[in-house]
Design goal:
6 helices; single chain; six-stranded mixed beta sheet; alpha/beta; Pyruvate-ferredoxin Oxidoreductase, domain 3; 182 residues
Length: 182
């Protein structure tokens, strides 16, 4: 089993945090091999940002792939730039609050979640990436949900009041992902 994931969006949407959380939690709580490869645009906030995460039960040959099983797009420019890299039969995860352009492919699974609006609605606008991580895990079963929940607890160990709200945000996304899984 090997999953090649790209997460792409604007700086400030938590793209890198989402990828790093997935990679670190998976490497700490499972026996799977993981790589995390970030790519920053010219500006941190508002500029483009993307990262690759590869999860495998075998050795990983390269940290970057242009043939993706999974693609998370948090904004429209990322959809247009990276959609050609998604394999036929792959999963496209769309932040439907921001990305409203139609997807002109019928050979992929499209999982939509209004994560920006959801994070605003729960009063935690910085949790959009954690919600989307839940959507991803719920739809793909790439790792058990408990792995990510432990990762959230570890990440926020020095700010314990942030653990429960982020676990709840993750679980909201998890339900959306499970409901839309193919």
């Amino acid at each position: 089993m090997e999953r090649n994931l790209m997460i792409a969006g604007f700086g400030g949407q938590g793209v890198m945090t989402m990828g790093k959380l997935l990679a670190e939690a998976t490497s700490q709580a499972t026996d799977l091999n993981v790589t995390f490869f970030p790519s920053y645009g010219a500006a941190m906030r508002g500029g483009t940002a993307n990262c690759y995460v590869v999860i495998s039960d075998d050795q990983i040959g390269a940290p970057v792939s242009y043939s993706l099983e999974d693609l998370v797009v948090m904004n429209g420019p990322s959809l247009h730039k990276f959609l050609p890299n998604l394999k036929s039969g792959g999963n496209l995860f769309v932040n439907s609050t921001i990305v409203t352009d139609p997807v002109d492919r019928d050979d992929i699974n499209i999982i939509k979640a209004p994560v920006t609006q959801m994070s605003i609605d729960i009063g935690n606008p910085r949790a959009l990436n954690v919600i989307m991580l839940g959507v991803y895990v719920g739809a793909t079963n790439a790792v058990p949900p408990e792995v990510i929940e432990k990762g959230i607890a570890h990440k926020f160990a020095k700010k314990p009041k942030l653990i429960d709200p982020n676990v709840e945000a993750f679980r909201m996304g998890l339900e959306i992902g499970k409901a839309q899984a193919k």
